[in-house]
Amino acid sequence: MMYCSACGKELATGARFCPHCGAAVAGSPAYTSARPARPLLRSRTDRVLGGVCAAFAFTYGWDLTLVRVLTVVGTVLLPPFVLIGYLAAWMFMPEEPVAAPSPPPNQA
Predict the structure, then answer these.
(1) Which residues contact 12 (CB under 8 A, 6 or more apart)?
(2) What are 79-95's pLDDT values in tens digits?
(3) Which of 1, 5, 61, 63 is such that its CA lies 20 to 30 A from the CA of 36?
(4) Considering only CA atoms, which of 44, 39, 37, 42 is closest in space to residue 53?
(5) Contacts for 52 with CB less than 8 Å, ≥ 6 apart
(6) Does the global pTM surpass 0.90?
(7) Are 55 and 49 in contact (CB under 8 A)?
(8) How far is Cα 52 from Cα 27, in angstroms, rounded to an integer?
(9) Counting Cβ atoms within 10 Å, is residue 85 exposed (0-12), middle (13-18) or buried (19+)?
């Protein structure tokens, strides 16, 4: 038997959505297409300029190098559109939160 990962209610076999809370069922086509890998956040670690290319690559599961190459090619071929889009994403896209350091192990 399957259970909803959001509300814990029992699901019918082959269900794509939970009839109780409406959440997409994990592993169903609705779940994989409706949910990005992670939220769209500018990267703090994999950035060259502002982390915009890394944000799109990590969120949608694209190759980071390919996204960067396409951004450069787009900047050369369509400079105003790509530059304005990149700058807007840089200004309005939130940055990843700073990871808190892990606490030291307890010493007894």
Answers:
(1) 2, 19
(2) 888 889 989 988 888 88
(3) 1
(4) 42
(5) 42, 86, 89, 90, 93
(6) no
(7) no
(8) 29
(9) middle
